[in-house]
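## retry 2 of 3
previous attempt timed out at serialization; input unchanged, resubmitting
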Amino acid sequence: MPRPKGFDPTEVLDAAVGTFWRKGYAATSAQDLVDGTGLGRGSLYNTFTSKQHLFQEALRRYEETSATRVEEMLAGPGTIRERIRRVLMDVVDDETGEPSEHRGCLAVNAALELGGIDEEVTARVRHNFERVENAFYVEFAAARQEGEIGANRDPRALAQFVLAAMYGLRVLGKTANRQALTQVAETTIQAL
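## retry succeeded, writing output
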């Protein structure tokens, strides 16, 4: 009979997300993961088999929390523009709030570091982006049907546009100030 685990794998993944998010994949050492998760190397690798597998699971966990957050904001009250503003300003708040670590988005960071190099990470990041894009698409399609946006507006193109703006804010957030990020968010809303 297998011995029960003495830790919560979700808590370990959340801790791993934070470690990878702060340092990136390549710069995160096994010791960083041990320190970040509180697990010994044996427990960590017996559970997740490798740093790469742990990173993939951390990306999956990050998607669960970040994409769900966007979906919940989009499902809230208000016009399509108000709900998109809420999502974009949430990004601005994350990037400029106190204390801000200017971490950006773990999925974007992974895409920049490993996209096109590691097929599994690329696929996981693509899935994350598609999930958020589809959440935007559903809302734009409904807004077009309800007459909130013009019938000539392509909901998929609008979803991709807002997705690019949102992740662009994450990248800009590493160096730009709140005023600049807010201007990008407001210009995006005006373009809708």
